[in-house]
Design the sequence.
């Protein structure tokens, strides 16, 4: 969302710059102002329609961060802007635009709105990118720690600030450790990749960090082993009880198993067999092994591999909605 807001701010900033430029050049005669005022109405409602469409998609669980705006969102925004622009063009024709006082009044109104939107949106995008972001729990993979529909704030600055459009992070205040609940972008480079029953490219996930760089991870009969030791997890939930899936009959050499896992292929090859019998694998450099607390209903690193550090956006911090579940995340 923060990148979307940033580019909305850039659009409004460009309009503001051009408005001042044309004003200094004394371009705003009656005809030009009518067109420019209509263009501002188009731009304003294009942005409004765009962000409403984004918000509706977010609320329905369609959150794709790798794509700036979807085609559907752009169409909604364009139609909103087009209707507003046409209406403004014809309604402004009824005003006395030959009067300099009337033209200055309209121009001042447009500039004030443009400045307000530009400042607010840019500031919001910076806050969301660097410090804090709202996140909605989309599924039951983290039950009972988080429930579907929980709204929480994500602490984004704690693990460092990622330089936009790069893999580099700066100002790291804390290292990611085992047990941290993190929000990350799904580790896929292709919109066509099929995982977890659908296309997850660009979507935000929430899971718990189970293994860090160099850790050996194995799951045997549903139980987690890290570096050969059984991990006792009071937060893990097993809704299927003692009903465990037996190991797959397919025998894969360890080196190939590791390779398939890192290429996000092991889940496609073995399917649900990896739920209760997985690995062992070694977590690669600058990567993490993550799992959902609802182990029997979580599509996680067992299926689609490690999460690179640069894709981790922040740490789950505080549930703010619904009010009865307000609490700081542990």
Sequence:
């Amino acid at each position: 969302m923060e990148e979307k807001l940033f580019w909305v701010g850039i659009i409004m900033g460009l309009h503001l710059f051009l408005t001042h430029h044309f004003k200094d050049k004394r371009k705003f005669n009656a005809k030009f102002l009518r067109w420019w005022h209509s263009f501002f109405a188009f731009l304003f409602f294009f942005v409004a329609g765009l962000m409403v469409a984004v918000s509706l998609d977010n609320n329905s669980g369609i959150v794709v961060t790798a794509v700036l705006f979807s085609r559907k969102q752009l169409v909604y925004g364009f139609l909103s802007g087009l209707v507003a622009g046409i209406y403004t063009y014809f309604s402004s024709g009824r005003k006395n635009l030959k009067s300099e006082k009337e033209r200055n009044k309209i121009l001042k109104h447009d500039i004030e709105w443009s400045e307000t939107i530009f400042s607010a949106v840019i500031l919001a995008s910076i806050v969301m990118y660097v410090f804090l972001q709202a996140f909605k729990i989309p599924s039951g993979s983290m039950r009972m720690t988080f429930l579907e529909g929980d709204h929480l704030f994500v602490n984004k600055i704690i693990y460092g600030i990622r330089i936009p459009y790069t893999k580099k992070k700066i100002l790291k205040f804390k290292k990611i450790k085992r047990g941290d609940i993190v929000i990350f972008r799904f580790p896929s480079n292709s919109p066509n990749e099929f995982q977890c029953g659908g296309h997850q490219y660009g979507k935000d996930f929430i899971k718990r960090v189970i293994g860090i760089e160099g850790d050996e991870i194995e799951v045997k009969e549903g139980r987690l082993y890290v570096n050969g030791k059984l991990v006792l997890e009071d937060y893990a939930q097993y809704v299927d009880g003692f009903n465990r899936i037996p190991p797959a009959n397919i025998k894969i050499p360890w080196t190939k198993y590791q390779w398939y896992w890192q290429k996000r292929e092991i889940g496609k090859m073995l399917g649900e067999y990896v739920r209760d019998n997985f690995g062992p694998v070694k977590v690669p450099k600058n990567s993490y092994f993550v799992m959902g607390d609802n182990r029997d209903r979580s599509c996680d690193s067992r299926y689609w591999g490690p999460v690179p550090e640069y894709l981790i956006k922040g740490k789950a911090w505080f549930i703010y909605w619904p009010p009865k579940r307000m609490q700081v995340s542990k």
Summary: The two ends are 25 Å apart (CA to CA).
